[in-house]
Amino acid sequence: MFEVKESVPLATDCCYVVRHDWTRAEVESIYHQPLLELVYQAQQVHRQFHKPGDVQLCRLLSIKTGGCPEDCAYCPQSAHYHTEVRSGSLMPVAEVCRAAEKARKEGATRFCMGAAWREVRDGKDFENVLEMVRSVAALGMEVCCTLGMITARQAGRLAEAGLTAYNHNLDTSPEYYGRIITTRRYEDRLRTLRHVRDAGISVCCGGIIGMGESDADRAGLLFELARMNPHPESVPINLLVRVEGTPLGTTASLDPLTLARTIATARVLMPAAMVRLSAGRRSLTREAAAFCFMAGANSIFFGEKLLTTPNPGRDEDDLLFRELGLRAMSRA
Ligand code: SAM
Ligand code: DTB
Ligand code: SF4
Description:
By secondary structure, the protein is an alpha/beta fold. About 40% of the residues lie in helices and about 15% in strands. The chain has one domain (about 25-320): TIM Barrel.
């Protein structure tokens, strides 16, 4: 009744190597292994490259909310859809600094600022973002931004300001992408990622699952990420937060085991990356979250809000960490 698949030989003597020459067939066969076999393999990889039980705490802040001209079907901040998100202008630098200081006191080692822009425009707002980057970097935190598309020159200026990482997701497979976003192309995203890499900024790039895509699309996304050389240092795996008013607001919920399968495959393919269990934790039981950590996730966003949607509260996460014996990563 059940088909038993051979596991893919990845290494000998349990010594895994970082590879960028994965074939699509190899990625599919890793992804489709019996789940416990896959999670076991992911644990082996994880323990070779990372300290087990260490989880990086990151804090998100929406520095410019809503009114975005892009039509990403999952996003409550797109101006194309009617959601409860109110649009605003760029937050003042001082307010962002206060939020970063608070996050640091609460244990965050990485602070990620998001703006609902299609692309960065040179001018006052960008100068202010550069100031925010300088201020957060001065607090001794890793600083990450996600501002939409950027040019090579803008990437250079962000690097100069002390930016650690730039987040720009591929979101899904090239084949499914056109069903989700029509206002920019996969190639546009790849160009921004090249600018980030060339500027010497570390790359944060992942995607969203639970958007009605197939197993082949999830494997396709991971294949695109895993053949980048170098791999993204940070791979956020978001579970769709279904928001009323967006085209994906009524999508069927995804089996959490599929989230764990996706995370485990990411861990096996990109051993050294931080694999981040990102949006969507509110819809996971603690058992499902535990399984995602088993599968190789080693970072979360903590704090009551992601960008515009709710996230588990501090007490809930404290309890989860205690129950699972996880430790918040300290500053390097
Ligand atoms: N506008 C910029 C961009 O798209 O690059 C930066 C902000 S955008 C909100 C950052 C990422 O958040 C998106 O690429 C997407 O992967 C994720 N995201 C947005 N809405 C989401 C949702 N409802 N559920 C899960 N992830 C979401
Ligand atoms: C990422 O991959 N996930 C974060 C961060 N990068 C910017 C964003 C999640 C957003 C979830 C929906 C919201 O709160 O608006
Ligand atoms: Fe705009 Fe980013 Fe939302 Fe897409 S994901 S609509 S680019 S804020």
